[in-house]
Amino acid sequence: MIMDWENDGRTHPNIDPPGLFDASREALMFLDRHRLARTTNSYALALQAVLHPYGPLGTAVADRTDGGIRLTEDDVAELMPLVRQHEAIDLPPDRAQLDRDLSDHAEALDSLTSEARQITSDFSNDVSALSHAHGRDNDLGPNSSAIALLLEQLIARISKTERHLEELSGSISSLRVRIESVPQNEDVDPLTGVMSRTGARSLIEGLASDSHGYVVVACSLDDLEGINERYGRSVADNVLRAFVATLRQSAEGAEIIRWQGNLFVVVQRGRPLSTVAGMMEDARTAMQARTLRLRGSGEPIGVVTMSAGIAVGIGVPMEETFDRAEALRVIAGDGVGNRVMSRA
Q: How many Å apart are CA 54 and CA 200, to the nearest integer?
């Protein structure tokens, strides 16, 4: 199952971008409207135009299609530089985001497969119930018009599912091509897209010489292990992504490092302890308020909370400051957790 949450921290000032699955569907509809072949380039153009309707590409597409004019293959070729600009902005220089997108698509495919099985089960149950109901009063069996209606409904549901599967298949193929073209980067955590501990090495080494000091936050989710046990690894992974999105929104300008497993380090320079503590309180409140649901069933997984410890370092190695922040995080997470503790 895949998690559903309100946003991922990448919002336009006036609009929220659609989810990747919805955007993929709209992109394929875009290609159909313009009667464009579903090539890698045309799909990439359509997807970026859907995701960024008010960006340079979206504006150029609007200008070329003013008055109901359709795009041509020549238009696609001419607009590809704008497509690449959007992709360079949207995607990190590694495979992390692409891997997450592919994972989301794969799990959406699993959801559609489950829907197909449910369609078959529902139809069998309906026919069985109808047969028993008519059999009690009519030796000739179920009413043919009722069976015809059930068949009509079945065909409609199957057709809808087939369309979704076709759309999803196209977007997965495009993502695979893009993933294969991007090299791995060990400096970035592939699950969450933030710095890995390896990638943060130069940052860590430079903090000791920062004469203005710095603030280190050690933070983690309070019950990720329980979520993993109840719902499985994929759900727990998506909760971690939601956690990182929350940190990014609340701790603007901070460096975020996935230290290990469920433990993240947030480094903030040039801001006092009180400001960083306020940011982490905002993150704690925002995380607690998020509604995280299982995609497909829509079942909420319950409140997810975080705990954090914060410490200040001036002229000392980052590891020393981290140890103090981590000790506070352990205390904050004791019991029910959901606390932020700080000390200069």
A: 35
pLDDT of 13-47, one tens digit each?
Answer: 333 334 455 667 778 889 888 999 888 788 889 88
In contact, 281 and 340? CB cutoff 8 Å: yes
Tell me the C-alpha distance between 31 and 70, whole Å: 10
Q: How far apart are CA 97 and CA 190, in angstroms?
A: 8
CA distance 28 to 301: 32
Query: Measuring CA to CA, which residue among 294, 190, 202, 289 is closest to residue 246?
Result: 289
> From CA 64, how far away is CA 56, in angstroms rounded?
12
Q: How many residues are given for the chain?
A: 344
Q: What is the dihedral of CA 289, 8, 280, 324, to 10 degrees?
A: 120
**Euclidean distance between CA atoms 64 and 202, whole angstroms:** 47
List the structure tokens of 42. 């045309």
Residues 55 and 87: their CA atoms lie apart, in Å, by 12
The angle subtended at Cα 212 by Cα 206 and Cα 217, nearest 5°, is 70
338 to 80, 268, 288, 332: CA distances (angstroms):
47, 21, 8, 7
Contact 265, 184 (CB under 8 A): no
State the residue for tokens 């380039």: 41
Which tens digits make up the pLDDT trace of 59-93? 899 889 888 889 999 999 999 998 888 766 654 44
